[in-house]
Design goal:
Length: 444
Amino acid sequence: MTEILIRNADVILTMNDAREELTGADLLLRDGKIAQIGHGLTTNGEIHDASGCVVTPGLVNTHHHLYQTLTRAVPGGQDALLFGWLKTLYPIWARFGPDQMFTSAQIGLAELALSGCTLSSDHLYLYPNGARLDDTIAAAAELGLRFHPTRGAMSIGESNGGLPPDSLVEAEQDILTDMIRVVAAFHDSAEGSMCRVGLAPCSPFSVSRELMRDTALLARDKGVMLHTHLAENDEDIAYSQAQFGCRPGQYAEDLGWTGSDVWHAHCVKLDGAEIDLFARTGTGVAHCPCSNCRLGSGIAPVRAMRDRGVNVGLGADGSASNDNGSLITEARQTLLLQRVVNGADAMSAREALEIATRGGADVLNRPDCGRLMPGKRADIAIWDVSGISSAGSWDPAALLLAGPTQVKHLFVESRQIVRDGAIATIDLPRVVETQNRMARALAN
Ligand SMILES: [Zn+2]
């Protein structure tokens, strides 16, 4: 029995059902789970003094393309819209292999961890030169983050009217075969699972209608989740109407892509009927505000989604369309954008943090994560509010208005991943060096 006591936190934001906030409180972790929350707790195990700190559930990232950390701020894609941006990057990604996938995933996940994230999904939809989903799963396991990798796919190349070059697409039968392989090899459905696999054709414009439908059938057969990009921008809606004769929501519904086992990234352009469809069916949304800003896609109707009962989580999105991979920054951007559209009282700092924690966990069907309650997983972010970013704050728990953007400590399943602001599980400076060497090689 291993115990860790986090003692005397200025505030614990529990995100429990009553959204309780406890002052001067303690949190006892035991064997990967939260054992107790309260005052005056004791242990014979390890003790962390959390005075001067705010404690929150670990943040949950519901959308990313970790491999893209190797193509941040590529000059030809810096100022492009989505489709033009993709066309710039596809030929570079076509030169990736297993080593690039592993290293870029470690960088992306480490960056997330430093920003308070304990559970991340990933959407890997291209597998050049022998790259496999296994490469990113190995990266997450070594770093120690809870991981929901999704086996993505593209099957319609340029010669068939698609966007990606033919070298980056796969035969649909091969895609389904590998989906079955990775689910069998890595998916763990148990409570407290450190790895759950999802199935995730890249987007309606990069695979066939048949693959969308077959993937949904396979996911239901295996009991795994479904994920893709949907309704990201105006071009996306126009493509759907021209190619499929309907809006994205209708397309998703027709092919079995709605339900509590489905979550869609972006959904910037969902209309009222589509929001109702998502609410009615329990379909989740990964909101990626910085990526949406960066690509000029628009502002997702998060306020309306939440008001109508849609499960919304946050996504950093791929580092090539966000460049920055900080999840706490996404949470702040969420509240800022909703205020731009709906006014200053449209979203509080606490609600945005709730979306970033509990909200994301609910999108990923992880009621065992995203809230600090006895029996839930010990995924904990500890924020030092004694420094300059909180100096003068009258409400340090309003972290997203004034507060640090990196954690002091981070625990996943009771294991310490960040210690005193540094990654504790891998040699991060060495990985950064490797990543930079790889980026230079790709640029030449
Ligand atoms: Zn994406």
